[in-house]
Automatic annotation (TrEMBL):
Organism: Litoreibacter roseus
Gene3D superfamilies assigned: MFS general substrate transporter like domains
Protein name: MFS transporter
Family: Belongs to the major facilitator superfamily. Nitrate/nitrite porter (TC 2.A.1.8) family.
Domain Major facilitator superfamily (MFS) profile: 24-424
Length: 469
């Protein structure tokens, strides 16, 4: 059953937070930003943690794998939970509970306890699924790609911001407040955990599940399928081969981004002899591309969809993924900083555009089990990161690991051609797309008429005339 009153425009209403769709958009990207920041908050401080806890390269590799492994299961579960209780409650509980291990990692005194908390923190990575779910139910087909891509991209931005903010926060704790390094990195994570907790409270009071209300209300009014059908729809979605193709594809873009977020600071410190703070700033350039790169992926996905339908969205996904793989292979061969950095940025551009392109396709796979599809595909990103993480467990040189990943991504790009849609669905979505565009034009016309009337009234009043009733 299709939810009604989805927003047909994003940018023209961007600051109109009175609209529940826009208010939810801003809350959901900020919540994901906070989660992503906390998820990888420890990564730029790993050199300090490594020295204090005496971690070996093999143990660091396990920490990298652990940080993304938990998220696979969390994303599979959270997609089902969104369909069942709605994104508002799901996000609130995830943020409140997820704040505990973020703060708790400061209690680590050994590799085992550090790994435990690192794994538990990975659970907040499921925030991505709720973000994509919430924007998908709030925005119409003509803008859903760019809404999904922008909310996720700005959320992923947390992975870039944390690369330079956490070293600075750590420096403030050590230099400004006089704490030891061992205490400084722990208190830095406590600060992040508090922010996550407060964001969870705000999310509950400032959002709602859908444009017309919360899921409980809509089900009571007969405007949504009952909870009892959620599990059945979930299992049906799991049988769709397109879901698993997108699972692999997302592992080839978002999985690579997660891996780079985990290893970039150490890579630039060890291979280019940079300091902790400088390596953090360089590594941050990869994540900071999320300001616009992922949005471009979704925006062009919508444009390709307007021109060539759903198959156009899939073709755009192939283009992004193919060039991501090529760019990664080029980056892996760079050994001078002034050429490594530009190649990193180009690689980042196509990686994040591929992510946006993926989730410009996801909302159209199975609307009755949107949470299931979003969750499974999102879990693919973490599965890809887990597999990629094994290449960085001191088995081979890290530059060779990047080259191998580039080859894998390039090959995976051709899977996009297996994401196909029936003629009936293509026709239905073209009609929905056209209807959304008509609604956008109608809204713009109403605004223009209102502005014209105000202008005429102002002119009449200036000339001392009374406007006609």
């Amino acid at each position: 059953m299709e939810l009604q009153n989805k927003a047909t425009a994003l940018w023209s209403n961007f600051l109109n937070v009175k609209m529940v769709q826009i208010r939810t958009f801003h809350m959901t990207w900020f919540a994901f930003f906070s989660c992503f920041f906390a998820w990888f908050g420890i990564a730029p401080l790993m050199s300090v943690v490594r020295d204090e806890l005496g971690l070996t390269p093999d143990q660091i590799g396990w920490a990298i794998i652990g940080s993304v492994s938990m998220t696979i299961f969390a994303r599979l579960f959270i997609g089902w939970l969104c369909d069942r209780i709605g994104p508002r409650k799901s996000y609130t509980w995830l943020l409140l509970i997820g704040a505990l291990p973020v703060m708790g990692i400061g209690l680590s005194q050994s590799f085992e306890t550090f790994l435990l908390f690192r794994v538990l923190i990975g659970g907040i990575g499921a925030a991505f699924v709720i973000t994509q779910y919430h924007t998908s139910v709030m925005f119409a087909p003509n803008v859903v790609g760019q809404a999904n891509a922008t909310s996720a991209g700005w959320g992923n931005l947390g992975g870039g911001v944390t690369q330079f903010v956490m070293p600075l926060l750590f420096s403030v704790m050590v230099v400004g407040f006089g704490f030891s390094e061992a205490v400084g990195w722990r208190l830095s994570m406590v600060v992040v955990g508090v922010i996550i907790f407060l964001t969870g409270i705000a999310y509950y009071f400032l959002t709602q599940d859908a444009p017309d209300g919360n899921f409980d209300e809509l089900r009571a009014q007969g405007k949504m399928e009952e909870q009892k059908n959620v599990t059945g729809n979930y299992m049906h979605a799991l049988k769709d081969p397109r879901v698993w193709v997108l699972f692999v594809i997302y592992g080839s873009c978002f999985g690579i981004e997660l891996t780079v977020n985990n290893v970039a600071a150490l890579y630039f410190m060890d291979y280019f002899d940079l300091s902790l703070v400088t390596a953090g700033f360089v590594a941050a350039s990869f994540g900071l591309m999320n300001i616009f790169a992922r949005t471009l992926g979704g925006l062009f996905g919508d444009n390709f969809g307007a021109l060539w339908g759903l198959k156009g969205r899939a073709f755009w996904l192939f283009i992004c993924l193919f060039f991501e793989g090529c760019a990664l292979m080029v980056f892996s061969q760079m050994n001078v900083l002034f050429v490594a950095l530009p190649s990193l940025i180009v690689f980042s551009l196509f990686t994040q555009m591929a992510e946006g392109a993926t989730y410009s396709v996801v909302p159209f796979i199975n609307k009755k089990a949107l949470g299931a599809v979003a969750g499974v595909v999102g879990a693919g990103g973490n599965a890809g990161a887990v597999l990629a993480g094994f290449l960085f467990k001191n088995v081979i040189d890290w530059s060779e690991a990047f080259f191998i990943l580039g080859v894998v991504v390039t090959c995976a790009s051709f899977l996009a051609f297996f994401v196909r849609f029936s003629t009936r669905q293509e026709d239905e979505e073209r009609a929905n797309f056209a209807a959304a565009n008509i609604e956008t034009l109608r809204a713009r016309a109403e605004k223009a008429n209102a502005a014209l009337e105000e202008g005429l009234i102002a002119v009449a009043q200036k000339n001392g005339a009374q406007p006609a009733e």
